[in-house]
Each structure stands twice: as C-alpha cells, then as structure tokens.
Specification:
Layout: H1 13-22, E1 26-32, E2 35-41
Antiparallel strand pairs: 1-2
C-alpha cells in the first residue's frame, strides 16, 4: 500500500536533483502558467 513520504525523506525536487547529478544528469524546474515544468536529462 502506498503511503505519502515523510518530511525529509528525499522524495522532493532537491532529492531528484541530487540523484540526477549522481549519474551525470541534470534536473531543471521552473514555474509554468498551470503548475511546474520539470526537465530531467540523463546520459544514455
């Protein structure tokens, strides 16, 4: 059963950015008119 993550559990944007960097990727975020845009680039 799914449960919401605990605060500081590493599921936020900071955690995503850190994980992307670990594999040589990047994560960019920005506000959009209807929410957020998230761009993840990882090496293939």
């Amino acid at each position: 059963m799914w449960a919401p993550p605990e605060p500081g559990g590493g599921y936020g944007l900071v955690g995503m950015r850190e994980r992307a960097a670990l594999i040589g990727g990047t994560l960019r975020t920005r506000a959009a008119a209807d929410g957020f845009t998230v761009v993840l680039r990882v090496p293939a």
